[in-house]
Design a protein that fits this description.
alpha+beta; nine-stranded antiparallel beta sheet; 26 helices; 24% helix
């Protein structure tokens, strides 16, 4: 049953009355139908993508299982590769199971994923593509839709309830796999939905009554998409979905004469003859139409009916499909299926493409089997028209007795129509939902149980595979032996009974939870996690309550006889209260209050006369007040402070559905299942009135719902909704999903970044020598936070690491059983089942789950590494996740690089470094074949026909750029050019994190895509402008500029030099440009060496005395850069007293600058055929010494005392000295000159020392005065 939800930072909770198991309820009462005024019918309006949420947190859902949820199958579909089966259930769950039907191998059925999203039954499914990923599209009976990744169940898109103005009953994917067509009860329109945004792109409305069936295919000549629709109006319409031709059907096929539509009997007969399913044969020669009463074959050439075959069972046909051109399979509601062989050799056809697989869904049954199923469902959605047959006797339960079923001869074909000259079909095989094992099992059961077990919830046939799903979550699969049909003798010889063909594979969804059922206690019916204490509290069917510490507690405390009956709900007082209280609601009509520390009973509320289904606190400012909802149709209001009952609201006219409130006016609004809203004044407890219809709707739309509903909490708590109170600053936050009598699904969201920040903060406080109580408390809190890390440790995967985890961390494997999940669009969730989770299953499921798990583990390990004493184990854990597992784990799935990219510029250093490290390590170690496949997949994703959003397209470019920069030698040159062009576009256009990464990558991989950059100076100028933006863009742009400068220094110096010289750019830009030049010299002095004259010319202009403001502003930065040049370059020297700077150039010239006047004073041709390796002033600045390693000659330059003071002074070389060093004669021309390890200096006025590498040479000369 339901439980309360609280956290250490957010006191959540409100009325959750989902367990009001009233017989007249028409929907799951825990559903949040507030999709009207507060929700847009736009799939993107409310939800944030899981990777781009408001806070960019790493939210890791951990679900604590205590049993299997019920899975009454209402829709089913199989993937074309016949490896996955997806089932939708009455409770809105989506189960994804892996199957194996390989001949010669043991067949397997493995439920892998349970996804929770819809609030009502999932009535139809269809397959499609979303960004080149295989997805399943689901539709709920409340008109909601969602798109799910088949690999891991992640919800990619979703809509609120009532997105469609009908209750969907049939859906097919169109030929492009990017759109689906949906029809349903209450509408005569066909809705064409775009899978990439869940928007209605067109509506087809030519039918006069509700549409019951759809089929999609293509005409192969020109691939024109065709859609067929069957309706209660007795027609099948053919639609061309070619743009511009959708409005009018191409053809209309009438199935029966509608002239007597006023006659009730005739109308019912016509409805029973309305198509449940329609399908072309693969060769396009015939059309299969399955109605309740009969199935028929029509020719596609002239729409001529060939024959109709009646159903041998009274409930009628349920669906049908072509197995191939010559085999047709049709089935009944009871699961009996019939395989017919037909002859189409004489039929003409028009060519069709291979049909899109039908979802195999049918309308929900109308019979309430809750008694025979032990209360699995108290009410089922009503079907319509002929699709819900009238069942005679025993309140609709007596369909056909077991005895009568055994007397039926299924070998007889009952034709209701045969066209003259038609080739008669033959019945070659039958399948039964009741296998031989089922017969033996059911012999001792009553008739109602037999009927329910035989009834199917959904069925479909794809190629030669037929599968059905039943109300117990059981899936049966038959492989039709198409290659050996001719060897089957049917009907059997006289006197022999037809053989019962058992299914090839039988699987049950609940089997995935077989090992995590409640051990030693009765069924868990309520659950609560106190996040601030990491305490798990559970209530049981026998009235017991247990408490245990998380993540591991070997001594769970059980408090027996806490209640006399089932515990329905658990709630806690606010953690800030002086005494922590626990409230428990039960079927024994009481609410009990416990002292959580001692578990002493403090008070019992006994104001209800029926089971108390829900308790929840009111929001601020009445947070110390809570309400209760009971099956006796009353609501109680209580004080947590004095434990008194303030008011009892009711009795209401019918069962309570939801509770709202208007805090400003002080009203409590109670919505009941009859559509009325009772308005209660909270202060006085008086009933103000009861309203209905539109007035009731308007009042509810402008009120706040009090709900413990899981989706309401997810939307508001994690930034997916419009709630202003949304925040993600919690460490852990728990919520519970429950549906009727299912065991509660207790989920804890681990906020990895917040946990990491809190560990760092507490560890810093301990390192700063906090002592006494504060120190002890801090250590205890730190220990509790570190214990959360046990959920991320790969227990049991390495026998050498487990002892280290236990010793260094003092941790144990978590209990109870848990699995990881994913938080998707709209707050929808998906979880691994316990069967496949294991220790390594989370890394063998999908790229997203691998990325999320690995990033959470590695980033948190980096944080814990700072504590001290655990460096070795944290390092080994990181290596294990990033290096060992990808190489050794069979079936390892590489991480989602798009997911990792989102965190490559994260504000948390631990997260950012971890994301980059995982990305780099994974790419570098990836096998060549997998690497090529990865690159091709992202390149294909960029094709315009994939319809990517601008953000998704940009992110794909970023991923490719990171991949290329880490493995440049394996990256295709054509791809490199394309990536380079796309990166430029992102830099010129955008802002935000992706632009930051684009700027970083354009520099990091510049050598890869430089050939695609047509205007390098323009790009450099753009990036330079970004260096003056806010962080982190500014620092990223600076680093990128330096990387580009190392590869293309010529353009760098040209652009940055122009920025320095351009007086119109402003002082800030000039200073920034000077700093950038200095940074490049420090980073890569060799790259700037050929352009030193240009650099010095630009820099000294900032010292022009005629612009004193600029000179003063730039003096410090310019001086710093010049000092860097003197340190880095032996051919640059500076004389402080005279403020002279000398440069020896690569073309043999000596250039002297006067920094006082910011001008170039003299230029001397010193070495006409060589370059100058080093140069220096003497102490008084009246002489220069220069050396060229190419000529191996030192020259002394001298002038008179007025040498530096007079224009036009003559310079002369007073001495030339050869050195004993070996003369350098390069074998090949040096394209890029390098700085030599050489220096020359004046040791005395009459002596020089030349130092080259590890050698030196001393020279004596005449003193220079």
């Amino acid at each position: 049953m339901n439980t309360g939800v609280f956290s250490s930072t957010n006191y959540l909770g409100s009325s959750n009355i989902s367990n009001m198991n009233h017989s007249t309820s028409t929907q799951s009462l825990n559903s949040n139908n507030s999709g009207s005024s507060n929700n847009n019918n736009n799939a993107n309006s409310n939800g944030k993508n899981i990777f781009t949420g408001k806070s960019n947190d790493i939210l890791l859902p951990v679900v604590l299982w205590c049993g299997a949820p019920a899975h009454w199958i209402t829709s089913i579909i199989i993937t074309p590769d016949k490896k996955s089966v997806i089932t939708g259930s009455q409770s809105g769950h989506l189960a994804i199971s892996s199957i194996s039907l390989d001949q010669g191998k043991e067949n397997q059925f493995i439920p892998k994923i349970l996804s929770i999203g819809h609030e009502t039954a999932i009535t139809c499914l269809a397959l499609g593509e979303y960004e080149r990923k295989e997805v399943v599209v689901s539709a709920g009976s409340d008109g909601s839709m969602a798109v799910w990744n088949i690999t891991d169940g992640l919800c990619l898109l979703s809509t609120p309830p009532h997105f469609l103005s009908c209750s969907p009953s049939s859906m097919v994917a169109l030929s492009n796999k990017k759109q689906v067509a949906v029809v349903g009860k209450g509408s005569n329109s066909i809705y064409i939905i775009d899978i990439h945004n869940l928007k209605i792109v067109s509506t087809l409305s030519e039918h006069k009554d509700w549409i019951t069936s759809l089929f999609a295919c293509t005409v192969s000549q020109d691939s024109i998409p065709i859609l067929l629709s069957g309706s209660l109006d007795g027609t099948i319409r053919f639609w061309s979905l070619k743009p511009g031709e959708e409005d009018i059907p191409l053809q209309t096929l009438c199935l029966y004469n509608n002239n007597n539509s006023n006659n009730n009997n005739s109308t019912k007969k016509n409805q029973d003859d309305s198509p449940l399913s329609i399908e072309f044969s693969p060769n396009g020669k015939s059309l299969l139409v399955v109605c309740k009463n009969h199935w028929s074959i029509f020719t596609t050439h002239n729409s001529h009916k060939l024959w109709s075959i009646d159903c041998p069972q009274p409930r009628g046909w349920f669906g049908g499909s072509f197995v191939n051109d010559s085999l047709v399979l049709v089935w009944t509601r009871e699961g009996r299926s019939f395989l017919y062989k037909i002859d189409q050799t004489d039929l003409k056809s028009f060519s069709l493409g291979h049909p899109i697989p039908l979802p195999g869904t049918s309308p929900l049954c109308t019979v309430d089997y809750s008694k025979s199923l032990g209360g699995i469902s108290s009410s089922l959605s009503k079907s319509y028209g002929s699709l819900s047959s009238s069942l005679a006797g025993n309140n609709g339960l007596a369909m056909t007795s077991t005895t009568h079923q055994q007397l039926l001869d299924y070998t007889i074909i009952n034709f209701s129509y045969i066209s003259e000259g038609a080739n008669i079909p033959t019945l070659v095989l039958t399948f039964s939902n009741e296998s031989s094992k089922d017969k033996d099992l059911n012999n001792n059961n009553n008739m109602e149980s037999n009927l329910v077990s035989l009834k199917i919830g959904a069925a479909m046939c794809w190629s030669n595979v037929f599968l059905i799903g039943d109300p117990f979550g059981k899936v049966k699969i038959w492989v039709i032996p198409v290659n050996s049909i001719d060897n089957i003798q049917f009907p059997p010889p006289s006197g022999k009974r037809a053989p019962l063909r058992d299914p090839n594979l039988v699987g049950t969804i609940s089997d995935a939870w077989r090992n995590c059922e409640s051990r030693g206690k009765t069924k868990v019916t309520a659950s609560l996690v106190l996040d601030d204490l990491m305490l798990l509290i559970r209530g049981y069917e026998d009235g017991s309550i247990s408490t245990s510490k998380l993540p591991t507690d070997l001594l769970t405390k059980f408090h027996t006889n806490s209640h006399n009956s089932k515990v329905n709900y658990l709630m806690s007082s606010h953690p800030g209260n002086s005494k922590r209280l626990l409230f428990s609601a039960s079927n024994d009509c009481t609410i009990k209050v416990w002292d959580l520390a001692s578990f002493k009973l403090l008070h019992t509320f006994s104001h209800h006369t029926g089971p108390v289904m829900s308790i929840t606190p009111l929001p601020h400012p009445r947070k110390n007040t809570f309400i209760s909802i009971s099956e006796d149709k009353t609501i109680g209001m209580y004080s947590m402070e004095d434990l008194s009952c303030k008011h009892m609201f009711g009795v209401h006219q019918s069962s309570i559905q939801k509770v709202h409130w208007k805090s400003e006016q002080g009203y409590l609004l109670v919505e009941t299942i009859d559509g009325s809203v009772s308005i209660w004044e909270i202060g006085s407890g008086e009933l103000e009135g009861v309203v209905y219809g539109q007035i009731a709707k308007d009042i509810l739309d402008n009120s706040e719902i009090l709900s413990n509903d899981w989706k309401h909490q997810t939307l508001c708590g994690y930034g997916y909704g419009n709630s202003s109170s949304s925040n993600c600053n919690f460490l852990t936050q728990s919520l519970v999903y429950s549906h009727k009598n299912d065991p509660p699904i207790q989920t804890i969201f681990l906020n990895i970044k917040t946990i990491s920040d809190e560990i760092s903060r507490i560890n810093d406080s301990i390192q700063n020598n906090y002592s006494g109580v504060i120190g002890a408390a801090a250590k205890k809190e730190l220990t509790q936070l570190v214990s959360i890390f046990s959920y991320l440790i790969p227990w049991g995967m390495d026998k050498n690491l487990d002892p280290m985890y236990k010793k260094d961390f003092q941790l144990r494997p978590p209990q109870p059983d848990f699995t990881f999940g994913l938080l998707g669009h709209g707050g929808n969730m998906s979880f691994l089942t316990p069967l496949v989770s294991g220790t390594s299953g989370k890394l063998q499921c999908s790229d997203t789950l691998t990325a999320q798990t690995t990033l959470a583990a590695v980033s948190l390990a980096r944080t814990i590494l700072k504590i001290g004493g655990v460096e070795n184990v944290c390092s080994q854990l990181t290596t294990f996740y990033c290096a060992i597992l990808p190489d050794t784990l069979q079936g390892y799935v590489y991480p989602d690089y798009s997911y990792l990219t989102t965190y490559c510029q994260d504000s948390s250093d631990d997260v950012m470094i971890s994301a980059r490290s995982i990305f780099r390590t994974s790419i570098e170690r990836m096998p060549q074949a997998a690497f090529k496949q990865l690159v091709n997949s992202y390149v294909d994703l960029l094709n315009t026909e994939n319809g990517l959003s601008p953000f998704e397209r940009s992110r794909s470019i970023i991923v490719l750029a990171i991949i290329a920069s880490n493995r440049p030698n394996d990256f295709n040159n054509t791809f490199s050019s394309r990536v380079g062009l796309e990166l430029q576009k992102m830099i010129y256009k955008g802002t935000g994190n992706l632009t930051v990464i684009a700027v970083e990558l354009i520099g990091k991989g510049f050598s890869l895509w430089k050939d695609s950059i047509k205007d390098t100076p323009g790009l450099l100028k753009c990036i330079f402008s970004l260096t003056m933006q806010a962080e982190p863009l500014a620092s990223t742009a600076k680093n990128s500029l330096l990387l580009i400068g190392s590869v293309d220094p010529r353009n760098f110096i040209q652009v940055i030099g122009d920025e320095i010289s351009n007086e119109s750019t402003g002082t800030t830009s000039t200073i920034n440009a000077i700093v950038m030049v200095g940074s490049l010299i420090k980073k890569d002095p060799d790259s700037v060496l050929p352009f030193l004259p240009r650099v010095i010319d630009s820099i000294i202009k900032s010292l022009d005395p005629h612009t004193p403001t600029l000179r003063e502003a730039c003096l410090r930065q310019t001086t710093a850069v010049l000092h860097i040049m003197v340190r880095k370059y032996p051919m640059v020297s500076f004389h402080h007293d005279s403020q002279r700077l000398v440069l020896g150039t690569l073309d043999g010239f000596i250039v002297i600058y006067d920094l006082k006047t910011a001008t170039r004073w003299h230029k001397i041709e010193a070495y006409p055929q060589s370059f100058i390796s080093c140069i220096t002033f003497n102490d008084n600045g009246k002489a220069l010494s220069s050396y060229s390693s190419k000529e191996n000659v030192i020259k002394i330059w001298q002038t008179s005392s007025s040498f530096f003071g007079l224009l036009g002074s003559q310079f002369s070389c007073t001495r030339t000295i050869s050195t004993p060093f070996e003369k350098i004669i390069p074998k090949t021309p040096q394209i890029i000159p390098k700085i030599e390890n050489i220096r020359i200096q004046w040791s005395t006025p009459s002596s020089l020392i030349l130092m080259k590498d590890e050698s030196s040479f001393s020279i004596n000369i005449d003193p220079i005065n």
